[in-house]
Structures are given as C-alpha cells and as structure tokens.
Amino acid sequence: MATPHIQGERGIFADTVLMPGDPLRAKYIAETFLEGAREVNSVRNMLGYTGRYRGREISVMGHGMGIPSVSIYAKELITDYGVERLIRVGSCGAVRDDVAVRDVVIGLGASTDSAVNRTRFMGHDFAAIADFELTRHAVDAAAAQGVAVKVGNLFSADLFYNPQGELFELMKRYGIVGVEMEAAGLYGVAAEFGARAMTICTVSDHILKGESLPSEERERSFNEMVEVALEAVLRDDAGASA
Asked: Where is the Nucleoside phosphorylase domain (predicted)?
C-alpha cells in the first residue's frame, strides 16, 4: 500500500533503484537510459520511474537533499516496496589533491557528522559501508568502460554551508575521497532493514582549490557515472546467478 511519501501499490518498483538527489535527474535518467519508462511516483514532486535497461527492469527515484530525506525514501522503498538494492548516483566535492573535478568516486564507506547511525546503533559508532559485491561490480564496470574511479571513504555532511572551514583540511588528512550529504544515512538504513546499497558520485567541485565543473560538462560526466551504475547492476545479477 502507499506510504506518506510514495504512492502506489507494492510491485511498482523494481528490486533495484538508482537514486539521484534531484527528482528531475531521476526523470532525465528514465528518459535517457530506460526503455518504456513509466512514472510511478510524484508525491511531493519526488519523481520515480520504472523501465528497462538492456532488458533488465530498473527503477529510478529522487531522494532529496540530506540524510533525513534519503533515509525516509530508502526505508519506505525497502520495507514497503520490497527494494533490495539502492544505488545513490550523485555529485560530491573533493578535498584531496589527487581527486579532481570530473573524477568518479565510489563510497566504500561514509563518515559523517550526523548522529543518525549512532541513534539507530544505541549510541555506538556504526561503520557505514557499501555492499562489497555492488562496489566490486561497479569498479569492474568502470574499468570496462574506460572510466577511472577512486574508491574510498566519503564524508556525509549535515551542513552544506559548514562554518568549520578547518574541517575540510582534516578530511584531506584522513583521505576522504568525496564530501556529500547522504551516503552514511543510506548505508545505515540499508543495514538496518537488510538491503544492499552503494554510492557513486561525480566530483563537481574541489572545495579547497575553489574549482568547479563547468555546467556544459556536468551532463557528460553524470551520464558516465549513471552508465557505470547500470552496468554494475547487470554484473551483480550475473555474479549472483553464477
């Protein structure tokens, strides 16, 4: 049955959902990559679609901005709609010298300044990590497409405009590959409710260098990243049936 945030009955979503933050990005992915895509959600304009990629049914739905928003949608997709795999496809900022705009990064783990995972883990630290097989298949898919990726620890921030500028230098020292706002929450929800999750991002700006990806290049970089995610799903399917 419908939830407060998603309309429609169980079965309207595939077992795998790609999740960009922007619902219009979900619409773009559906129109660009999926055959026969149909809209399955429009509550609060958080658009969701289901279609086929190379014959495989896949859904795509926006998750909004920040850990609270992605946590609501991920939880309901898992518990109310039977979704088993969630892949965040988004953008992030860089802090390391060897990570540049246009790079694709995969969040093997996600540190955070949010308390959500401590709350769900009874006050203890919870290691928010991606599903290993999904990550491995994404790395392999990227290699097959000639897309270089960096895999490591993301930082999921509660504040987009963080007043603690020195925090970015600390992230650099600890090897953070990308700064974004959702992965740690997504990984926590997936762990709590028994799903598999991964985050793959395009670096849109370098926080410490003050560089940003020109608008005309964002679509091309985004397309590369989405295709890596879609191909990773097919490889994951093949690995599960092997």
From this structure: 17-233
Which has the closest alpha carbon to 180: 128, 138, 216, 229?
128
What is the band of 242 on the pLDDT scale with cuts at 50, 70, 90? low
Q: Is 21 annotated as a binding residue?
A: yes
Is 227 within 8 Å of 89 (Cβ atoms)?
no
Do 131 and 197 contact (CB within 8 A), yes or no?
A: yes
pTM over 0.85? The answer is yes
Q: Is 218 annotated as a binding residue?
A: no
Q: Is 205 annotated as a binding residue?
A: yes
pLDDT in tens, 197-227: 999 999 999 999 999 988 777 778 899 999 9
CB 177 within 8 A of CB 152: yes
Question: Is residue 205 among the annotated active site residues?
Answer: yes
46-97 pLDDT, tens digit per residue, is 999 999 999 999 999 999 999 999 999 999 999 999 999 999 999 999 999 9
Q: What is the mean pLDDT of the chain?
A: 96
Amino acid at position 143, single letter: A
CATH architecture entry for 16-240: 3-Layer(aba) Sandwich (3.40)
Strand pairing category for 149-156 and 56-61: unpaired
Q: Could you tell me which residues come within 8 angstroms of residue 162 by beta carbon, excluding any fewer than 6 positions away?
A: 168
Q: Are 117 and 184 in contact, with CB atoms under 8 Å apart? A: yes
> Look-up: residue for tokens 């407060």?
4
